[in-house]
Design brief:
Mean pLDDT: 85
Strand content: under 5%
Structural class: mainly alpha
Number of helices: 3
Order of helices and strands: HHEEH
Radius of gyration: 16 Å
Strand order of the largest sheet: 1-2
Distance between the termini: 26 Å
Shape: elongated
Length: about 90
C-alpha cells in the first residue's frame, strides 16, 4: 500500500509499474507536498485562496487510500491469477 507499482515490478510488469509509480508520485506531490509547502490552495475557477482545513485533509486521505488500495487489490489479483510475463 505504501509504494504503488512495487508489486507490479516484482511480478515483472515494468511498464505498468512505472506508470503506477509516476501516478502515485504525481498524486502525492499535487495533493500533499505542494499544499504543505505553500500552506494554501487556489480555486481554479475563481482564483480565490482557500485554507487547508480538516475536510481537505480527510478528502485527500480517502482519495490516496482509495488509489493505493485499488492498486494493491489489482496487483494481488494479477498475482493470484498467475499473470506473469514469460
Amino acid at each position: 500500500l505504501a509504494f504503488p507499482g512495487l508489486g507490479d515490478f516484482y511480478l515483472g510488469h515494468k511498464g505498468f509499474a512505472t506508470l503506477e509509480l509516476l501516478g502515485g508520485i504525481f498524486g502525492w506531490l499535487v495533493l500533499v507536498i505542494i499544499p504543505l509547502l505553500s500552506g494554501e490552495i487556489v480555486d481554479a475557477e475563481t482564483g480565490e485562496v482557500l485554507t487547508l482545513n480538516a475536510s481537505y485533509w480527510i478528502t485527500v486521505a480517502i482519495f490516496i487510500g482509495f488509489m493505493h488500495g485499488m492498486d494493491a487489490i489489482m496487483t494481488h489479483h494479477f498475482a493470484q491469477k498467475g499473470h506473469h510475463p514469460q
